[in-house]
Amino acid sequence: MSEMMTANMLVKIKEAPPYTTELETPVLLNSLARASPDKKTGSYTFKENQPTEVKPNLANVEAIEETLKVSGSTAGVGVDQGTFSTISYELV
Predict the structure, then answer these.
(1) pLDDT per residue over 14-27, tens digit each?
(2) pLDDT in tens, 51-91
(3) Rg value, the chain, Cα
(4) How confident is the model over 1-16, as pLDDT tens digits?
(5) CA geometry: angle at 19 spanning 13 and 20, to 5°?
(6) 50 and 76 in contact (C-beta within 8 Å)?
(7) Distances (CA, A) of 77 to 32, 61, 71, 81
(8) Which residues are CB-contacts of 88 (< 8 A; sequence separation ≥ 6)?
């Protein structure tokens, strides 16, 4: 923000995308791909090894299971939680 105020530059126009031509397809097709700051150029770039799987956080599922074990009853409980891998679906 302070650089924008002193240099009067609200927008920095880039000359090239933040990925190489070899990484274009993997970056654009990977919804988990994230750019990280590059100290050499002062810009953001994509690295070659991007994550391809989400590690599920099962903390909420475990907490609900423990609560239900203690109470002994599921009457009135309206919590639907689970992992997407347990859902069966067909691509049309």
Answers:
(1) 888 888 899 899 88
(2) 888 887 777 888 878 877 776 666 665 666 667 777 777 77
(3) 23
(4) 566 667 777 777 888 8
(5) 115
(6) no
(7) 33, 14, 11, 12
(8) none
* Long-range contact set of residues 53-57: C-beta below 8 Å, sequence gap at least 24: 56/83, 56/85
How many whole angstroms separate alpha carbon 57 and alpha carbon 18? 30
Q: Please report, for residues 19, 34, 41, 46, 90, the alpha-carbon distance to residue 15 in angstroms, rounded to integers and kept in the order given.
A: 12, 19, 12, 16, 42
pTM: 0.46
Q: How far apart are CA 2 and CA 39, in angstroms?
A: 19
